[in-house]
Amino acid sequence: MEQQDHLLAEARRYGYIEGDQVWLQPIMNLPARRVGLVKDSEEAALLYFAQRFENFRAKVDDLLQKMEESENKGSFLMKALHLKEQTAVYDGLGDFETLHRRLTEAEENIKVTIARNREKNLATKISLIQETEALRDTIDWQEAGDKLKDLRQAWIKTGPVDKEITEELETRFRDAVEEFFVKKKDFMAQKKAMTNRVFDKYKELIHKSEALQNSDDFEGTTAKLKQLQQEWKEVGGSLPRKQANDLWTRFRAAHNHFFERLKEHINTKKVETVSTGPDDNLSRKRALVAEADALLNRPMNEAVARAKELQAAWKKVGPVRGEESDRVWEQFILACDKVFEMSALEHFIRKRQAGSSEVLTKEDQINTRVQALRDFIKSDQQEREVLQENLGKLSDSPGNDTFRTMLQGKVRAFDRKIRTKTELIDILRQRLVA
Length: 434
Description:
This protein is mostly helical.
């Protein structure tokens, strides 16, 4: 009863009845307007339209409460504007002016919040654009591609900015994304072209080796194959491991075939015994070892040329008996290997530093070479592990003997390469101390 009395008092405060019509008094600079008809009694009509106002006010209260509790206040703007428009036309009796004022204040607050959010969104989008534009200078395309996905997702999740600059920002971000993919495409095309050049060079060396593998000019062909081996080391570039291993296997097969024939030729050929005895031969070979050991102190191009001359001279020296023969040969081949490995190292350093104007100290130069040798050793060890793994997978079938022998020879070759590079590191360190 008390509620009805209150509603009736509010209805008479803001409205009145004229004839059979219910009117709302002038509010908000608007003239009085008819809100309905009297159907049963004047009191019932006034209560009915006062209750309609209470229902409308409840909607306004509910909207403002939800807006207050929400972080995304901007999503309530259109609802607030709609209710605000209804305050001028809604059929009810009550304090529409207060509701209009409350909704206007809410509208202003929402607009302030939207403006602040758009400022934050603008700062976020500019940052995303700058990060995306910076990706054009990347060299790690995989990592950059993952980051670009995150940036694009962040862009989608970032709210709107002022309409005047929306298109400009969208265009700039889209251009940065497109530039990234264009540069990535160009990089991949260049990488593929480089890979093709490396592959073609390896195939060329393989074809030359296979053309020589059955030659009977053992001395001349040996020199040619050694030169092809050196060229193989100097190709540079990189290929997928399996492809590189397949090419290397084919290249080595041609060389192994020739040198097996050479070994058989030496064993079966009747060599005229020179007048000098085994002791003289040992002395001469030791002298060649001593000269080979000293080659690292000469300019590299002279050292390589002289090492090849010493190898030719070695072949002309007669045999040495007993265990000393293997020992002096190991000393000689290691000394020559150091020269060729050092030459390959210098070639690698020159290529890597080409175009650089940086002047390195003597210490930095040596440290750079030591690090490069360590990287080469790591690569050799990985190749050796693959060969050793393949060797371990071979069954004991006699049909695998030839392949097993070939793999064992490759493993020994990598052992020698690793040993040679390790000794070169020691030599460079001694130079650094000196």
